[in-house]
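Give me structure tokens for this 156-residue protein.
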Amino acid sequence: MKREPPPPVLDSARVVAYAFVDDIQYRRSGRLLVDGVLLEHVPRLAICFNLGQNLGAMLLHCDSDWNVLAMSGTASIEDTKAKAEENYPGVASRWVDLNTSVEAALDYYDSMMGSLRCSFCGSRPFEFERGYVEGNAAVICGECIETYYREIHKVP
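Here you go.
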């Protein structure tokens, strides 16, 4: 199995550190359920910060191709590393700091998403709270649709 580092962004979150844990003996501490199924040992972990709403330090549990299987986390990187250590004893010495900057993460995200942005406000998909509608030559986010609706229905 190849051990390639993760991309700078995983599921709209910028990667700040990662670790390979496929050969660490897994010790379940707590329960992490994904669609009602208990997630056990994973081969990759990444500590990330969401590009959108601040969710604190997120621990992404990934498969060998860096596909995110689940997320847990705490308020800080240190606490998240300590939590990972409970399940993967010895991971503390394996963290690789990637420290992807916000600018580099957004550049990467934009390159992966292409031109998918609201044509009116410029929001990116991770900023769409109410989804979006895509036409032949434009994309409009739910927030802009709501704003437009309120404007055209104003009582003079």
